[in-house]
Design brief:
This protein is 35% helix and 20% strand. By secondary structure, it is an alpha/beta fold. Strands 1, 2, 5, 6, 7, 8, 9, 10, 11, 13, 15 and 16 form a 12-stranded mixed β-sheet that branches. Strands 3-4 form a two-stranded antiparallel ribbon. The two termini are 29 Å apart.
Length: 411
């Protein structure tokens, strides 16, 4: 029996809002430069970790969405909507002319509107129940970014919120591709958004030992694969991709920026926060994604790694990469620049991976001064490196042992 032909979803639009900038072009320049974004955070003063990777101060959702819309929304929703607007504009699609029932939205998010919840809980304790805003739930809910994006563009097809911790963004892109493959949708806006840099979340992550403690030098704190790494730096942001069936995109003359050609998912089923030390679950997801794409490990030119800069996670991922695809691929982690945007990270990094395939340049891993000797991979450091292969992996792994891997290919 002839195996089914691998399904390629065309990426026709990209949108980004991250600590590296507002908009795809600004982000790509900063990531290629390898200049970190972590800095002291006034909202975290007095905590054991008092720095983060924030979206630039010139981010102005009112200018994009209008004051009437922007004032109602939680920050994670605002980030997702602005990224979606850019992606939709990049795609050349016109929501006034599409069949909205055939357009879906799938957005990953891990923690919802934590800042909104903290503010309203403070109001409840200090001023009483009458002071709690009726907009608390719309500004807090994990599903609200997907919901508001659909409202904004008239997407009346499936509207899904995916929450697989820090794998959420990549899971959302994989689910979106499946909606196209099974004929449920003709167009899907897919991605992830997160704005969980709030005092309670940072205090909790610090207590769990997940965060870097380089308070004396925040800019050097996010150092994936480096021998001196001591945890990740929390970030915020959003990434959105517009996906269509490849044949449909080419028939309308769209610019195809890349393709989502494979998706694999697995669970470590081992521990609530620690990864499998040998990367077994991650390796399973990589192999599943490659099989889905009809490719082998030798076809992969580079990996945009999960690479959060935790002691255990980076080593486990390196072992998974070596075990699943071998030593040849270039490996980078853009979290050295952006920090870890948690539920948005996979989608943000999927956009970076498409841009790397499009440009033939793999960004360097910031702050990678001395590689951990346990990490036996061809790590990109210092400056961007050229890559000729037309296929790449985008890895995302989350608390709970959730693994999601995308295979992205050049147009």
């Amino acid at each position: 029996m002839t195996p089914p032909r691998p399904f390629r979803a065309a990426v026709t639009g990209l949108g980004l809002v991250t600590p590296a900038g507002v908009g795809v072009d600004e982000n790509w320049k900063r990531v290629l430069s390898g200049v970190p974004t972590a800095s002291a955070d006034p909202e975290l003063v007095g905590l054991p970790v008092d720095f983060s990777c924030r979206v630039p101060a010139d981010f102005d959702p009112v200018a994009v969405l209008g004051r009437r819309t922007a004032w109602r929304l939680g920050r994670h929703v605002l980030l997702g909507m602005v990224a979606a607007r850019e992606a939709l504009g990049d795609s050349g699609l016109d929501p006034d002319s599409w069949d909205g029932a055939r357009v879906g939205v799938v957005m990953g998010n891990s923690l919802g509107g934590t800042a909104a919840f903290e503010e309203q809980h403070r109001n409840l304790r200090e001023k009483g129940a009458s002071s709690v805003s009726p907009l608390l739930l719309p500004s807090y809910g994990v599903n609200m970014a997907a919901g508001y994006i659909a409202i904004d563009c008239g997407a009346r097809g499936p509207n899904l919120a995916v929450s697989t911790a820090c794998a959420s963004g990549s899971t959302a892109v994989g689910v979106a591709r499946d909606l196209l493959r099974n004929g449920t949708c003709d167009i899907v806006l897919a991605g992830g958004t997160e704005a969980a840099v709030s005092p309670s979340m940072i205090a909790g992550l610090a207590a769990a030992g997940a965060l870097s403690r380089r308070c004396h030098d925040p800019a050097t704190a996010s150092r994936p694969f480096d021998a001196g790494r001591d945890g990740f730096v929390a970030g915020e942001g959003a990434g959105v991709l517009v996906l269509e069936r490849e044949a449909d995109a080419r028939a309308r003359g769209a610019r195809v920026r890349g393709c989502v050609s494979g998706y694999g998912a697995s669970a470590d089923a081992l521990h609530d926060t620690a990864p499998d030390p040998e990367g077994a679950g991650a390796r399973t997801a990589v192999r599943a994604a490659l099989a889905d794409a009809g490719l082998s490990g030798s076809d992969i030119g580079h990996v945009n790694a999960h690479g959060t800069a935790t002691r255990l996670g980076d080593v486990a991922e390196a072992r998974a990469i070596r075990g699943a695809i071998g030593p040849a691929a270039l490996v980078t982690s853009t979290k050295g620049v952006t920090g870890h945007c948690m539920g948005a990270a996979g989608a943000i990094e999927a956009v970076f991976t498409v841009l790397a395939l499009e440009s033939g340049l793999v960004p360097p891993t910031a702050n990678l001064d001395r590689a951990d000797p346990e990490i036996d991979c061809d790590l990109v450091r210092g400056t961007a490196r050229a890559v000729t292969s037309g296929a790449a992996l985008n890895n995302s792994f989350g608390f709970g042992g959730q693994n999601a891997v995308l295979v992205l290919t050049a147009a």
